[in-house]
Amino acid sequence: MGRALWCMMLVTLIATGAGAREIVDMTGRRIDVPEPLQRVYVASPPESYLACAIDPSLLVGLTLPLPQRYRRYLPEAMTGLPVVGGFFGVGNAPNLEALVKTRPQLVICWQKTAVSERFDKFLRQFGIPVAHMTLQRLQDYPRDIRGMGRILGRPQRAEQLAAYAEKTLGEILPRVASMPASERVRVYYAEGADGLSTDGRGTWHAELIDLAGGLNVHKGEKDDLFGMEKISLEQVLLYRPEVILVHDPVFFRKIFLSPRWRNVPAVKNRRVYLIPRIPFNWFDRPPSFMRLLGLQWVAQVLYPRHFNIDMPREMREFYRLFLRVHLSDEDIRLILESREVPEHG
To answer: Which PROSITE patterns match (predicted)?
Structure first.
């Protein structure tokens, strides 16, 4: 460890040596958290975005850069933070020197893995406590939002967000459960610039299809955190999806122009939808709290006769509550059409 890093260690140890309160993290570990808690780093995008929704003033760094054109849809406290990196995708990890420079009093990580164990060990040298989260299944979000609120010392704010999550799940899931199996729509989730990567039934990345009552046409063989299993166009044709949900704007711009895709039922019937992604994707990558709004959008897309959701009204409530942003009519149009947002305006 270099001299500069040791100096930062000394500063961090002094900064974290205030009073403390005991918390129990989402894996049952008891941890002493400095009090007052003012500087927190969260090591993966879904958990980082949730912490931002609860109190953006606590964050000391970001896991990913924020596109300039989306910043007006985010809390101002979030937009000037340094990018520290984080655990996401394949092989990504935080920049440890940049992380220590931010002098966090607490680090929040996804549930324990071999990688996070080494990360924990490094942070213990600096006297920085690490709390673990289990943020994954959308149905567990009410519990997980409250858990994050307890860790951050913001239980009242977390309760507001958890109540919205409970309301949304309580409105969508029972109606889906009452739908006959014969009415379930066949759905393909197209990822990548060629549309030929996907995630199968029961996976974390595609769970909104299952929750909204769709039949994911791909059963899937890949069961890892990253996903994106490659398949062939011939397989998609055999699947005969009635709806295609598209992750990548590049693929969406060319699917209707491609003679190779024109015989897919969803393309023939123009039931191909680009997933909204402002300021974060509503469906996946990262699978964040935006999926609470995404669930409503997917249900409406798949079953417009069963779900009569006023999406502009719902968007206004959601963005105001979670992101502290007030949407104009033009904002709503841009977001739902998944168009590029102008840099200024």
So the answer is: FE_B12_PBP
